[in-house]
Amino acid sequence: DLQVTQYELLIDRTDLQPGERTKFAKELADLYAAQLMAASSDQVKYNDTFRRIQALISKAPDANTPSLEVMLLQADYNRAESLVSTWIADRSQQAAKKEATEILARIAPTLDDRQLQLNAQTEALLKEIDELNDGDRRVAAKERELRRIQAVAGRATYFAAWSKYYHGLVAGGDSFQRAQVLFRQILGVEEEEYDEVEVEWLALESVWRARALVGLGLAEAAIGNLKGSRTCFEWLRHASVTPEIQDQAPYWFVRGLLNSGRLAEAAEFARGEIATYNGNATQGKVSLCVALVRAAYADGAPTTPDLTRLAGLGVEGLAKLRQQKAIDQLVEKHGVKLTGGGFYLSWVRARKLIAQAKDEEDGEAKYREAATILEGALRAPEAKNNAGAASQCRYELAWCYYKLDEYEKAGGHYEQSLTALKASGDSSAIDAAWMAFVSYNKIAKDELRFATRAIEVLRGIKRDFPDHEYAKKADYFISKLRRSGASPRDSMRQLGAVKPESPNYLAARYDMCMIAHQQWRESKDGARKSWAAELTNAVDTFVAAAQRDSSQKSRVLKAHLMTADLFINGDAADLAKAQTALSRAKPLAAATASSDSTVAEYHFRELQLASQTGAAPARKLHAAWLVENASGGSYELPALIVVAKGLEAQMATAAGPAAQRVRGELISIYQRLVMRLGDSPNALAANKNARAASSRLAEYMAAANQHEQASRQLRKLLAAFPSDKGYLRRAGVSLFRSGDFEASLNYWRTLVNGLPRGGEPWCEAKYHQLACLARIDKGKASKALRQYKLLYPNFGAAAWRTQFTKLEADLKGS
């Protein structure tokens, strides 16, 4: 600032020698350029500097130096970038495209010329500094000037590269190739092959350099080098990159594919990304989904299968991320169609109705319609394959019933959604538990069983969420519920006193069953035996009285299930009596809607009984029903395990098409198990069942030649167990077989460095390391193989000699 003030005073003096004003004006212009760069985020200071620049140029036109011109052209670039983004999102915006083309046609060549001049200046200054003696006082001044010009030169190269890329998008030509050259220049990889680059040396902790890598990835996609583009965006996931840019890496890869017209490739990559979404929205994930929808509707409604697929994936992703507002904006702006069936589109339509109902004074009809749609959505196949999304959908269904004052249904759905929400670590799990309590509490005074159920939910909150504020309130409400009603024994006496001729007789007898069952489950020793006797008596009395009342079928079914629970899981199990209870329950379950939670419990009790009696066909039958119909509920997990074991037994003897069919079913089952158990690093490290399920899923995917999906699952396992030799080997094999030789090479290198040298596992790793390298760089592979053969003339372990010999022949032939 002091230098700027001094120069401003100098150029206004009247006693300057010829040429001095121009000299001082150019030096002032370069200082202004540095100030503009430093003040880019301070609008007030930026505008003040810009005003001074205009005054300087009017006094001394020759002061418009390359440094200053670069900084002034940045404003034009920002305008062009905004116009290009507008056109990409909506191809009907031809005026924006035309203006952007005009601006870029003007500034791109100028920026390219200026970066050449400024880079030449830096080279000249470096040479001057090298020629000065270490003690020369001019060195410090020259180094300061060098740093200033280098900063502007870097900025000039950066904006020249981006201007070339955007010019290529709107006007075509060879601009993409020039953009690629400039981005590589910024990153210092002008001559290197990508597989030779060490990511740590790219200094991607600098946001500017990371953004230059984004540009390089886009440019590579534009010139058709999809492999190079993918590599660039994989580099952006490196730990040195800021989390925000790491999150955006998949979006930019998709953006590059879309910009280059690679719609099928964009859809396939996006499908894999969206499959991993679990409700945790980030800017990168939302941007990716929005980009897909905008690309599909860029020229109006989708007219090809690829465009339709893009739109569907985008909406599905936004639904999984719970971005209803973003979906509404896309519907309003582009007329996105939400018609058709399927889980996600149905869920989106229901959410829209719920939002409308909230804004209406009487939204009952909207809530009713939304509940009907959500019930249908939960029966869709996608709901069974995505427990996390299904549980969130059920959570919203519970809210609809709550608003409709159907508190028993609301509480049941909140409880059913709780299991999967808790398993996936969803933050709304505690809200589901609390709302289940609130729902039951609403009707606890009318029916005693709901007070018991409300207390049970509160105890679960204390157990599962001990640090939450709701847990701190639980004891108060438990105490209140108990004070508001009689003790269990008093309640039983009061209910038992209701006469058979009373209209409340059946309700009272059913409540006695509920209380006795709850107390039996919670009591110990002698009290437990006493409540078991009370339960059998209460059930027998209620069932006998309710036989002639068809409206009591659901309650009679539940009563039989309580008895079955007692005789299967009680202290003195009696499987014959359990079988009798379930035989009585069977016709009632068959006559009840499958969505009723008591039907799921019936099949679960049958599954428990079959497991204890060794009745394999029945065990398989009821487990299959639960897998098909109880997705997201508390009975799904044990059923999935039973079905998985049964399929694995079939797999042991299956062959040909039968084996393929069984393997496909196993993949589907293990995908659901992984969704239930989790596959985050924490979940895998803490739960051996989660680890086993993920490993089996990867195993069956690999056996089905789904190597890309298998490697994705193995990478998750390696995030939790980075040194596991088995996972490293399996990931290396899957990536090798899927053709991703660069990624595969990294795993084999790790194994080569970590395994005992010369053993069969080490030779396997060494062979694959060389085989990967042969696909990437045959020259390097030949050299590495020759070096290996010097140490191991017979190629090491006998099991791998044939493969090494063939690899050697292939390399010599090439």
What this model shows, in words?
With 814 residues, the chain is mainly alpha-helical. Helices cover 77% and strands 0% of the residues. The chain contains 39 helices and no strands. Helix 8 runs antiparallel to helix 9 and helix 25 packs antiparallel against helix 26. The two termini are 64 Å apart. The model has no long low-confidence stretch (mean pLDDT 87).
Structural class: mainly alpha
| Cα end-to-end separation | 64 Å
Main sheet record: none
Low-confidence stretches: none
Shape type: globular
How confident overall, as mean pLDDT? 87
Q: What amount of the residues lies in strands?
A: under 5%
Total helix count? 39
Radius of gyration: 35 Å
Number of strands: 0
The helix content is over 70%
Write the layout of secondary structure elements.
Layout: H1 2-11, H2 20-38, H3 43-59, H4 66-89, H5 94-131, H6 138-171, H7 175-187, H8 207-222, H9 226-235, H10 243-259, H11 263-274, H12 283-296, H13 305-320, H14 324-334, H15 343-359, H16 364-377, H17 381-385, H18 387-403, H19 407-423, H20 429-442, H21 448-464, H22 469-484, H23 488-496, H24 505-522, H25 525-546, H26 553-569, H27 575-590, H28 597-613, H29 616-629, H30 636-651, H31 656-677, H32 681-686, H33 688-703, H34 707-720, H35 725-738, H36 741-754, H37 760-776, H38 778-791, H39 801-813
